[in-house]
Amino acid sequence: MSHKKKNLRRRKVSSSDEEEEQQVQKSKEIQQSASTKLSFYDEMNDESDISEYKPLMFISKDSLVAQSSNIQGIQNIGAETNVEQRISFNDQISKMKTNKKLEIRVSDQSGRGIFALQNISPGALVMEDIPYAAVVDDLNLSTICSNCFMKSGKLLCCSACKFVYYCSKDCQRNDWSNHQHECKIFVKVQRKPPTSVRLLCRILMRRMSDPTSFKEIENLQSNRNLFKQSQIETFAQLSYVIRECIPKDALLPPSDMIELFCRFTENSFSILDGEMIPNGVAVYPNVSLINHSCRPNCIVTFEKSKMMIRCIESIMKDQEITINYTDLSQPGEERRKELRDRYFFLCQCELCEYYKLKGHVDPRNALRCQNPTCSNAIEPPESLESGIEEFTSTCSVCSKELHYDVADVEKKLSMALELYDEGTKLRDKDDLQALALFEQTYKIQQELLHEANYNMIRTRKSLIEIYCNLRDWKNALNHSLKLTKSYRILYSKSYPLLSIQLYSTARIYLSFDHNEINVKDLEKIEELLREALKILEITHGFQHPITKMVEMNLWDVQGELKTKKN
Ligand SMILES: C[S@@+](CC[C@H](N)C(=O)[O-])C[C@H]1O[C@@H](n2cnc3c(N)ncnc32)[C@H](O)[C@@H]1O
Fold first, then answer.
1. Helix/strand/coil for 374
2. Does residue 221 have its Cβ closer than 6 Å to ligand 1?
3. pLDDT digits (tens, 9 = 90+) for 397-424
4. How far is the CA of 111 from the centre of ligand 1 (A)?
5. Which of 46, 56, 308, 496 is most buried per CB count within 10 Å?
6. Is the beta carbon of 58 within 6 A of some atom in ligand 1?
7. What is the Å distance from ligand 1's center to 110 Cα?
8. Reported pTM
9. What residue owns the CA closest to ligand 1's atom 8?
10. Which residue's CA lies nearest to atom 21 of ligand 1?
């Protein structure tokens, strides 16, 4: 599907909802009937290329209610209603420090989930967990310790394979049981298997040394019946790679290997650094029980490979704990597609439902008001396909009469996306040419799209990156300030990406020549850092290295401000 259609497609509330309901109904039927499932998925899509799975934020499910009764050690303490059964914490969950605040319950709609047993305030640590198994991703192997996940410019590399790095001899020793088998393979073939395969090897090695722990993995949803045949075939091929990497005793029978791949696909997390940039992949079985919302009340952050779930929106007793599985800057339609394709459910969260209501325009795919002084989001017109040539509307903020020539808008936006793609291809080769293409893209989009439109955000991010590479701080700052404004529209006030964006903007400011920064600038920087810090204390906690770093930057700026004022 071309991007232009995505841009302009207006949601036909009733029919698309019906379609989605039908698809979900169909997927429920498939869960019960393995024989029909694959043909449905073949029909439904698509361009599945999962040979290089991106470790996602998250996970998925199976026939959940049925599965819940098989959970080892989880005791069903009786259904209080037909919809929800209360389930007490089992050994697995009691490992979590804060378990008295939480319990597992099961619902027809989303299977197992974690619920609050008391009110929880923003900033509170709701859960923390260490990985069952974790690997540093390929790009970061030389800068992150493969055992403790410490980031450093001075790591020691494994003298045998020279692929894997450690921060100390102790870390190398501790990781040896995991690394010894892959090390031989790296030496033999002089290249690494994909990150996902390396992680699965570690899971299987742990199973061999600690068989009871493997129940934690077996408890995860697999949704095997819902995977497409092409995906299952890829899993089968990757299983062959795994056979080459670990001892025979560590292997599972072929069908269990496929099941493991399905569980991994639905339950793996990206490990993120403080700035929310992925640097590894891991499985955290306890946290895998948390369901998704596009308006989550909790957020996942990491200290090295330890995962922390912190509350970002007040949670009331009996409310479900939720985190986000997708990129929230994407329009609802795309988020729902991703969730349906990967996690096999139709998202009906507060955010998705809100924009289905008449009169609520999602800025993520909106046009902008044609009045240059008005920034209102306008619901995009029907695409060309539906035969509409002109779209008229009235801006609800400035009351301007709006007239869009649909063909012209489609053409311009389509051209902007082509320019963007060209720019992306050139990005690592020729910054200046890429910059010229991104500027052209921006010029077209700025005239037509709302500032929080997904495509505008993408273009701005690319422009900021290139201007920073070129040390053109003035232009980088201009776009970064505007991006911050868009993030305020897109994200809740305690969302970590907003704090990281505020901090990045402050850093761009601080990159200016010292003499160019006056008191007014310093006050602005102080304001940015203050706000970033306030959010980070909630999302990452007071002790997180990034929180400390922002705090130190703030002190420096406050000191300088004092000196300049005197
Ligand atoms: C990581 S698992 C979450 C725990 C899962 N409910 C379980 O029982 O193991 C992800 C799966 O949970 C279900 N799920 C998560 N969020 C959901 C939501 N908002 N609505 C419906 N189902 C959801 C989906 O089946 C998804 O594949």
1. coil
2. yes
3. 999 998 888 888 989 999 999 999 999 9
4. 6
5. 496
6. yes
7. 5
8. 0.82
9. 112
10. 110
**Within a domain: residue 311?**
no
Does residue 21 sit within a domain? no
Number of domains in the chain: 2
For residues 140 and 35, give the distance between their C-alpha atoms in angstroms, rounded to a whole number: 42
State the Cα–Cα distance between residues 148 and 138, nearest whole angstrom.
Answer: 16
Token pair in block for residue 74: 């989880």
Beta carbons of 115 and 103 less than 8 angstroms apart: yes
Assigned domain for 398 exists: no
39-50 burial: b if 16+ Cβ within 10 Å, else e: ebbeeeeeeeeb
Any ligand 1 atom below 6 A from CB of 231: no
**CA–CA gap between residue 544 and residue 128 (Å, rounded):** 14
CA dist., res. 562 & res. 541, Å (int): 28
Q: Is 322 in the pocket of ligand 1 (CB under 6 A)?
A: no
- The reply to whether ligand 1 has any atom less than 6 angstroms from the CB of 289 is yes
In angstroms, what is the span from residue 266 Cα to ligand 1's centroid?
A: 9
> pLDDT, tens digit, for every residue of 130-183?
999 999 998 899 999 999 999 998 999 999 999 999 999 999 999 998 898 888
Final residue belonging to a domain, choices 249, 268, 287: 268
In a domain, 67, yes or no: no
Domain of 221 in residue numbering reads as 135-268
Atom number, ligand 1, closest to the C-alpha of residue 64: 8
Atom of ligand 1 nearest to the CA of 106: 8
Query: Peptide bond before 46: cis, by omega within 30 degrees of 0?
Result: yes
